[in-house]
Amino acid sequence: MSRLPLAEAEALPAFLKEMHDGAGAQDWSTRHVARAFAAHPDLLERYLSFYYPFHSNDGVDGALEPRLKELVRLRIATLNGCKTCKAARLDPDHVTEDEAARGVDTVAEGGSFSPREKAAVRLAELMAENHHAFDDDTMRELRAQFSDREILELMMMAGQYIGFGRMLAALQLETVSCPI
User: Which SUPFAM superfamilies would you find in this protein's record (predicted)?
Assistant: First the structure.
């Protein structure tokens, strides 16, 4: 059960009502999020107005390919233990269901991932598990694969994936199997 009160769906502001009603029949977590954010709807709407365009490069000058960002998001979802994030498929055109379901968690083992993708996922793991271990060697490895602009975007996206997923878990909004 959510650690915040969940507003009744009928009382939600338009943005949250659309989000709630547009969620799939089994997507309880999206409905939970919409209802919990009734206490501060502008916060979620403005956050998502940054998140989605930069995740997909939709109308923004993103430095990184959406596939790379989706692989990072999915790896962080596993590390965070966020069921909502792990179940979501935000870029099905560029990340196969097999990669999304299990492949991204085995990037270190090789497979069909590019050196850039492997480096991005390693950075995501480092940021999610031990960001204090980020050192000059880590930066050299990143700069071998990415421009400074790309590194900034990669770290910014990874940081917000980590934070949002952990917030969902802490507030118990990411439970996907218990209807309210």
Answer: AhpD-like
